[in-house]
Write a structure and sequence with these properties.
This protein has 416 residues and is an alpha/beta fold. The protein has helices at 22-36, 63-71, 89-94, 107-118, 145-152, 164-167, 191-196, 199-209, 214-220, 286-302, 396-413; strands at 39-42, 53-56, 76-81, 97-100, 123-126, 156-162, 182-189, 250-253, 256-259, 265-268, 274-276, 308-319, 323-335, 338-344, 350-355, 364-366, 375-379, 384-389. The strands form three sheets. The chain has a seven-stranded mixed sheet with strand order 1-7-6-2-5-3-4, with helices on both faces. A seven-stranded antiparallel sheet has the order 15-14-13-12-18-17-16, with helices on one face. Strands 8-9-10-11 form a four-stranded antiparallel sheet, with no helix packed on it.
């Protein structure tokens, strides 16, 4: 039987930051910025006197304090994924949080952003990649930023932060590496230019300002990372062996990475370069290995060879106090029809969710989410679930790639 689903409403009116919380935010942010030794580099004239659309790349928590400190004492609101509200919804509402479900088209959110900037004279900060960078390179930004800037009729300021990923990569956040963070801040479009440039021209400027490659930057600038754990868990993103082609057989620990299928072995030096113990490494720079995997995943999709089936444990975001609750194990299929989840939940009700490729441009993933395992973030306009694959290992990064590949293929062929 099907059970009537209760949905968590997130469409409240966004508030400007409460005055009594701002000193706490400033002091707390300053502490983290001092810890990261962040250096702010304004590449051209940057001013926060008038409200602006603030865009930043996203690799770790430090990305938030850096913006607060650089904008001091100006106020800002934030577009925040609702998972961050669990247990802290009062706080996030009152520091100016605008609720968002990941990778959904939310017109209510767009209206709130425009209203905050044009009518409430408050800057809005967005991390448009909508996920943490997995390999320290820029990810897909979507196509709507230029149109949003035109609607807001305000300056567009981009933070291209470097060192934030190397200091705390998502696949091994702790302990922090001893890496200084640099925040390059650029006004890519003035208020006047939003009236004269096309949305496409603004979009192009934003995308150009977002290009970054942490491992290449580390190598080019001779930045040493002496951590004994600098390669631990890097197999979470380097899941395909370039020697034998096997997937999900990679493993890592300490400063080493190896393939359990063919025995190939790499060591990461203090500059982030991978050295193969036997022979020459095909991809000594991590970001190049990651790009090769992406090309391989896209090729698999283009040739119609991709399909994954697995049982997954589902957890649903019930409300902001309870957070996520396990609801059962169902079957997941991912192919050219998109994501399909079907099965019987723990309460005996039938669960069926279909997310066609064109509804899922990208995928947010969580490595070992709160110690409960690797998870996919599945969202609709009404609900959010985390799906924990049970029958395939080390698969999240490939889901990240193939979700995008299937979206672009479906868009090109107009297949729903």
């Amino acid at each position: 039987m099907e059970k009537k689903q209760e949905h968590l409403d997130i469409h409240w009116e966004a508030k400007t930051p409460r005055w009594y919380l701002r000193p706490i935010e400033w002091v707390g942010s300053a502490f983290f910025v001092l810890q990261a030794r962040t250096k702010f580099i304004h590449t051209n004239k940057v001013s926060y006197k008038e409200p602006a659309l603030i865009l930043s790349n996203h690799a770790s928590f430090i990305d938030f304090p850096n913006v607060v400190v650089d904008m001091f004492p100006r106020k800002q609101c934030w577009v925040i994924s609702i998972e961050e509200f669990v247990g802290r919804d009062w706080l996030f509402k009152n520091i100016g949080g605008i609720a968002k479900r990941k990778f959904t088209s939310d017109l209510h959110m767009i209206k709130q952003i425009v209203d905050l900037i044009k009518n409430k004279k408050t800057s809005v900060v967005i991390y448009p990649e909508a996920r943490f960078s997995l390999a320290g390179i820029n990810e897909d930004l979507g196509e709507g930023l230029g149109r949003l800037a035109k609607a807001c009729e305000c300056p567009v300021i981009v933070y291209n932060q470097k060192g934030n990923f190397l200091r705390s990569p998502q696949w091994n956040k702790r302990p922090y590496r001893d890496v200084r963070v640099y925040a390059e801040v650029t006004t890519v479009v003035t208020k006047e230019e939003t009236l004269t440039l096309s949305a496409e021209e603004i979009q192009e400027r934003i995308e150009q300002a977002f290009v970054y490659d942490e491992y290449r930057w580390q190598f080019d600038n001779n930045i040493k990372i002496k951590s004994k754990y600098r390669a631990k868990n890097i197999h979470k993103i380097l899941y395909k062996c370039p020697e034998c082609g096997n997937e999900h057989e990679m493993d890592s620990d300490g400063t080493s990475l190896w393939c359990n299928a063919c025995g190939a072995h790499w060591d990461m030096d203090v500059y982030g370069v991978l050295h193969q113990r036997e022979g020459e490494a095909k991809y000594p720079i991590v970001s190049n290995w990651y790009r090769w995997e992406r090309e391989e995943a896209f090729k698999e999709v283009e040739e119609g060879r991709y399909q994954v089936k697995s049982k997954v444990r589902l957890e649903k975001l019930v409300d902001f106090k309870k957070g996520f609750e396990p609801i059962g194990v169902v079957d997941m299929t991912h192919d050219e029809n998109g994501y399909v989840f079907e099965g019987t939940l723990d309460d005996g009700s039938q669960f069926s969710l279909k997310k066609p490729c064109l509804t899922t441009r990208s995928m947010h993933i969580e490595f070992d989410f709160k110690g409960r395992g690797d998870a996919l973030d599945i969202a609709t306009m009404e609900d959010t679930w985390f799906a924990f694959p049970l029958e395939i290992k080390n698969c999240l990064t490939k889901f990240n790639f193939v979700t995008e590949a299937l979206y672009f293929k479906a868009k090109r062929t107009n297949k729903q």
